[in-house]
Amino acid sequence: MVLRQLLRVPALLRAAVAVQLRRNVGLSAVAFNRAKELDPVQKMFLDKIREYNTKSKQAGGPVDVGPEFQKDMNESLARLQRMYGEGDLTKFPEFKFEGELIILLNF
Description:
By secondary structure, the protein is mostly helical. The chain is built from 3 helices and no strands.
């Protein structure tokens, strides 16, 4: 009985070490892949995203849109304004909570 338990410990230890090695190899593979050069398609995709970001900041909004986009946007904002009332619909709302805040933690 004791002998069986002693023989079982190395098997459990071996299983735990195997799990840790698999995790570490998986994480190190991701880290090494990031250090390498990007795939040409990935690099082109990232370059386009960065280019669009700079153009968007310069234009102050969407890039390369026509007058129909602005017309549709104004119509949509007017429709939302009628549905939900007043306020600036282009900004995120501010929430103000009054009273005490009670946090219940369930452990």
